[in-house]
Amino acid sequence: MADPKGFLTTGREVAETRPVDERVKDWNEVYVPGSLLPVISKQAGRCMDCGIPFCHSGCPLGNLIPEWNDYAYRGDWTAASERLHATNNFPEFTGRLCPAPCETACVLGINQPAVTIKNVEVTIIDKAWEAGAVTPQPPERLSGKTVAVVGSGPAGLAAAQQLTRAGHTVAVYERADRIGGLLRYGIPEFKMEKRHINRRVEQMRAEGTKFRTGVEIGRDIDAAKLRKRYDAVVIAAGATTARDLPVPGRELGGIHQAMDYLPLANKVQEGDYVAPPITAEGKHVVVIGGGDTGADCVGTAHRQGAASVTQLEIMPRPSEERPEGQPWPTYPMTYKVTSAHEEGGERVYSVSTTHFEGTAPEEGQAVGNVAFLHLVEVEFRDGRFEPVPGTERKIPAELVTLAMGFTGVDRDNGLVEQLGLELDARGNVARDADYATSVPGVFVAGDAGRGQSLIVWAIAEGRSAARGVDRMLTGASELPAPIRPTDRALAV
């Protein structure tokens, strides 16, 4: 145990954020660089090293949290990094982006603020990179087997790194122009600077992983031919079919899916554009959807100089305290204020969009641009949301982003049909206990098989699917498999 009295003598302190008026003028990460170092050892000392560490259950990766908390408390950053990497290929991603279900499962959190596990994690990995302790781990020998990984998000990268280190020759195919999937183009720069992805990719290249960007399997290369070319294929293409909003006026200009809007802002940071083709500058912005993607749209709109930002959510406003029906150690649906929400804007709950109102089309335009969004308050009755009479109103809306989640794997590019993959009832690629699909030699990991989920589940699935592939190719595997395809988060 790090500090036997740490949880009694030390209060919870989290990473310090930069002032709002400063950070909305740039795209750098919102946290003050180095602000954790003076406090993080004591924060790690709050860990009680529980006899049954429920933080392990909260995290699908099975992170050895009490162990690396102890090393961090003692200042042994090298040992802490080794324990962290034992279960997590990319802790600098999870330490910045994960909503930390480990913290809501922390035993200390029963009656006190939980240990700042996420902050300790990101400090450990940042210290490891600074010290040069994160080095390539190429295999001692090659197996002679080849694997194609389709998709370079966290699941695809985790599977590729595990399989490369097992000695297989791995090529990652990514349809975008850069590696990273939604980490690259779905996560704004202010949440995670892309240099973190770049140095991991360089580590993986040094280990032997090959990367093929700008290649969409199903369109540029026939998926069936890809299967014949490789000994195994891992589908880690995500669940990228966005949920739409089929209401009158949807065809108006200025209404975009979040994943059509967010990547353009990231491409500006990559130097591809001077200004994004879709911008919130000077506009009244409405974000439909109250989740993380919606918050990303809010923060992006602030930085682009929006005139106003309003975020709509059909669900009621959550409680700020853990609801009675969501007991520890489950992940509670509580009211959260992200860094983007701290920066301004209005959040409106229990409302549903009825239709959009637009301007008259200009010369050469087929339709006009959205100008107003009409909404109505709703109540949940008899299993559905019902409008409340007399609550209709309209709000200015010159740019609308739809951030309502995703419904399954992409069916338009031919990947599913060309391979003949079976889908489950939710539109995800069906798989067995080894992450193998209905097609011999083809496996699936991440959101493509699980559905929309968290980054920790994606990495855990990538690691687990790698074991299934390795066992098929060699007859046995020593790679870890932290979760089964049927495992789900602690919930009620």
UniProtKB/TrEMBL annotation:
Q: What sequence ranges are listed for the domain Dihydroprymidine dehydrogenase?
A: 26-131
Q: Which parts of the chain span the membrane according to its record? A: none
Pathway-wise, it operates in:
Amino-acid biosynthesis
Domain of life, per lineage: Bacteria
Please provide the record's keywords in A-Z order: Amino-acid biosynthesis, Glutamate biosynthesis, Oxidoreductase
Which Pfam families does this one have? Fer4_20, Pyr_redox_2
Where in the numbering of this chain does the FAD/NAD(P)-binding domain appear? 146-319, 376-462
What is this protein called in UniProt? Glutamate synthase subunit beta
Query: In which organism is this protein found?
Result: Streptomyces synnematoformans
